[in-house]
Amino acid sequence: SSIILLHSLSLSPKVQGTHPDCSIVLHFQRREAECLERIQSESPTTALPGEEGGGCPTEWDGVSCWPALPLGQSRAVACPDILNVFKKSKGLIQRNCTEWGWSLPSPPYHSTCQLETLGSNNDTEAKACHFVTMKVLYTCGYSTSLAALLLAIGIFSCFRKLHCTRNSIHIHFFTSFILRGTAVFIKDSVLFLDESINHCTMSTVTCKAAITFFQYSVLANFYWLLVEGLYLQTLLLLTFTCDRSYTWGYIIIGWGVPMVTVGVWVLTRLQYDDHGCWDDYSSLYWWVIKAPILLAIFVNFLIFLNVTRMLAQKIRCPDLSKTHKQQYMRLTKSTLLLIPLFGVHYVVFALFPEHVGVDARLYFELVLGSYQGFLVALLYCFLNGEVQAEIRRNWGKWQRSMESNVFNLATQDFTA
């Protein structure tokens, strides 16, 4: 029965391949390591089963550690304390020390502890199909976002009239989304390309580098959103005065702060928690990444409230022209929409343990999150009136140039 139980436990993390939750596997690995240390520390005084005065040595059966026991006695243990694997049960599992060694667990683990993950093949196939479908959805989402973001960067870069500090910040923001989408594809290819490898026990330099790059891209994404909010507030305070002296400060916040944070996180993991592939979100050191993200979201929320207050004051101002009011509305509507969109779900899930609301967390972070880049490109570029006007102007200029070339060509043919 313990073999069936271990097979069920090893199956669960593989099903959740799109968002690794290895707490179950790591829990039993720690328990096994503790039991093996106990076995090694014990003096080999316990005789082998079958010998005169023999007993049963300490043994790890794959689920529980059974301390050494004299011949003819029995011992009972409770169900393992893993709430997201076992239902609460007051039953005990018993094993006897016989002359042939330890007896089988009675009653079996899966019946006494009411194993949650032990389901039919249909249930397993349904879960696998669900996560495969989710992976297809977020792959389509990130691909769409990458295409839209690259096109938006091309538009801002090609048209000289669009070159300004505001659009330069937008380009950096778009780049952080591109890095985030690329990091997701790299992480999937490294961790989940080979189904025969258990990613929970993988501990290679390549997988750690992939996770580090992913964490950096996520941090940079949130901090460039913070820069967007800071710049919007600066514009409102300086009445649309483009001050390039702040550009390097924004770059330090957007790229530098995440780099320092991830550097501290890497050094911490190397020194104190260098096991696995560093994708265990139940680790205490995960707060080195999570705390700066929550800080950025909190500051952005304060900016959101302040900008809303300033905008309401300026719109009510009777001396402000209609043109300036339209400018304020155009510059603020995108950022005011994105700040709560980016932060609300993250704050909600940050207040709960990682194993709570896994399905909802996966849906928000992977499926809906994969389309955020497309939404950003849509709001800041494709629906931007200034960009649309510049595209129409250049399109009309190109059409007139083509018509002129055709006319000149026809005239040359006629005169010839």
UniProtKB/TrEMBL annotation:
GO terms for molecular function: G protein-coupled peptide receptor activity; peptide hormone binding. PROSITE patterns: G_PROTEIN_RECEP_F2_2, G_PROTEIN_RECEP_F2_3, G_PROTEIN_RECEP_F2_4. The keyword Disulfide bond applies. It is a multi-pass membrane protein. GO terms for cellular component: plasma membrane. It comes from the Eukaryota. Its main location: membrane. Keywords: Cell membrane, Disulfide bond, G-protein coupled receptor, Glycoprotein, Membrane, Receptor, Transducer, Transmembrane, Transmembrane helix. Residues 34-117, 134-384 form the G-protein coupled receptors family 2 profile domain. It is found in: Cell membrane. The chain crosses the membrane at residues 136-157, 169-186, 222-240, 247-267, 287-307, 328-351, 363-383. CDD domains: 7tmB1_GHRHR2. Belongs to the G-protein coupled receptor 2 family. This is VIPR1 protein. It comes from Thryothorus ludovicianus. The gene is Vipr1_0.
